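Journal club side-thread
Mid-discussion, someone asked how the predicted structure for our own chain would compare to the paper's figures. Pasting it here so we can look after the session.
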Amino acid sequence: HKFNTFLKIHAPCFRLDPLLLSVAVYLLVHLTGKPMWSALWFFMFVPAIWIRVSKNKSKVCVVTYMDKAIDSIWCILGQAFFLTVIGIVIFGYFNGSCNFTLMLPLSLLYAGLGIAITGIITDFKLMVYTPLIAFSVAIYMLVSMTTNTVVADWWNLLFGVSFLMMMVIPGHLLNHKIKEPC
C-alpha cells in the first residue's frame, strides 16, 4: 500500500498539540491581557524537533522517491518557518518592536502548502482540499492586518481550529486508511 512508508515516517505530524496549545495561548492572552503569552507557540515545534532528532534512521531499509520528495518539501517549509522567525526578530530589532502576529497566517499558509503537496504526492484527496480552510483563514487574517483591523486574541483559537481541519482530521483518516487491507 502506497501510504505505508509515508505513515511510518510522517504519522507523528498529525497530532493534537497545536489545537491544545491554541486554547492555552488564547486563555492566557485573554485572561491576562498580555500578548507575550503568544511566545508559547514556539512549543509547537518541540515534538517535531524531538521526533526528528530521536528518529533512528538505520531502521528505514528503503527510502522511496515519495519519501524523499515529502521529506524535501517539509524541509523547505521548515526552513521557511525558521527564516520567517529570524526575519521578524531582525526587523523587529531595527524597528524597536518585535511582533510575531504575522506568524499565525504565515504558519497556516506554509503548513497548508505542505499538506496540499503531500496530499498530491500520496494521492490522498482530503489532504489536497482541507488546506483550503486554512488558506481562507490566513487570507482573512492578512487582510485584517493590512486594513488595520484589531488582531484579536481569539485568532489563536481560529488557528487551532484551522490546524485541526487541515492536519489532524486528515491525518487520522489517513492513519485509519492505512489499516485497511489493499
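Post-session note: Residues 4-33+44-49+62-178 form one domain.
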